[in-house]
Amino acid sequence: MVRGKQRIPGIKAMPTQSTVQPTRLSRLAGQLAQDIRRKGLRSGDPYLTAEAAANFLGVSRMTANRAMNVLAERELLVRHGSRGTFVGPAAEAVSEASVGKCIHYITFVDDNPTIHVELGEILAGLEAVFPDVSLDTHIVPLRNAMQYVQKKLAAAISDSSLGGIVLTLGPRSVQQLLADSGVPVVVNGSVYPGIRLPSVEVDQLRLGQLLAEMAINAGYRRLMFVSRELWRRGDNLAFDGIQEAAHAAGLGLNSVQIRNIPTSPTDLANEFEHILSEVEAPCALLCRLPCFARAAAEAAKRRGLRIPEDIGIVYDDTVQEGGLPFDAVRPQEGCSLREQFRKIGQMLTEMSAGRMPDPMSVVMPVEAVPMVRTSEK
Question: Is the pLDDT of residue 270 over 90?
């Protein structure tokens, strides 16, 4: 059975000290349960001592003992003071129930009121690896993101059907939390330096280069990168690429400007009217999202600015929404969202088997897609 869920949570109170410890124990118990499944252990098989479990989890012997007691209450473990710890009868039910896998997809909304998650393409990619997969989608506001993800992680790691977690657009703190969880996690996007998580992403540096090169080749000498207010790792890489292209073209230090769109604007076109009021034409807007390109065109029309004579628009279409009459940068053929999630599914399978994927990072190439001009039709 394949199902998709989309949840937009409300804001909850910060966790108190009384709620943090059970969450941690639940997470540790889930890591042990994952270890039992990964090793294919069955009821009656011997399992780790408390000391060995402490080494495996990286915690004290007392804490490991408490996590093992959580599994004993669920009959995933049976503990004998003199004989040791053994896999319990509930492991058989877990094995039978784990045929269909659930993948948790976590993304964040802080900047795009027209967010559109292509669940069909994501599912199609995962189904190529997991024949009976369900997709649990979490669309999370960045405010209190850590609290929300911690809660969902605690529930997910004790779920016998867990196939893994896919994280996209996540802040560094959330990436680090998931990297430390012991759960199979793959990032659909760029991983921050120092965090050990596998990833599948489009080539953000080359994307930025192509955005700038298309504008420069069209004759613009002033560029403006219009991005989200809260930058992620990929945004920095894209801007690095823009600067590289501008430098290679001999543009001056002040030729590239930045404008950031505030969190969840109520009227994108109004935001772009403010931006265009400060622009010295001719100038090319390098738009991070398709909705930014649409709003820029509407704002230009309101202000009586001509496209492309006064304002150029080039946009990042790696989400493959398409349909806009502007130059764009997209994944190359064979690097679609479906293909990206097929590779993510393969990585999750490797991690579920106790192996880290090789390679750890898959970078999908991108290409410039010029607008078809009237004379070219």
Answer: no
pTM score: 0.69
Residue 372: predicted pLDDT: 57
Distance of alpha carbon 116 from alpha carbon 368, whole angstroms: 23
If DSSP states are collapsed to H, E and C, what string results for the chain? CCCEEEECCCCCCCCCHHHHHHHHHHHHHHHHHHHHHHHCCCCCCECCCHHHHHHHHCCCHHHHHHHHHHHHHCCCEEEECCCEEEECCHHHHHHHHCCCEEEEEEEEECCCCCCCCCHHHHHHHHHCCCCCEEEEEEEEECCCHHHHHHHHHHHHCCCCCEEEEEECCCCHHHHHHHHCCCCCEEEECCCCCCCCCCEEEECHHHHHHHHHHHHHHCCCCCEEEEEECCCCHHHHHHHHHHHHHHHHCCCCCCCEEEEEECCCCCCHHHHHHHHHHCCCCCEEEEECCHHHHHHHHHHHHHCCCCCCCCEEEEEECCCCCCCCCCEEEEECCCCCHHHHHHHHHHHHHHHHCCCCCCCCEEEECEEEECCCCHHHC
Condensed to tens digits (0 to 9), the pLDDT of residues 90-123 reads 776 544 444 568 899 998 876 454 456 677 888 8
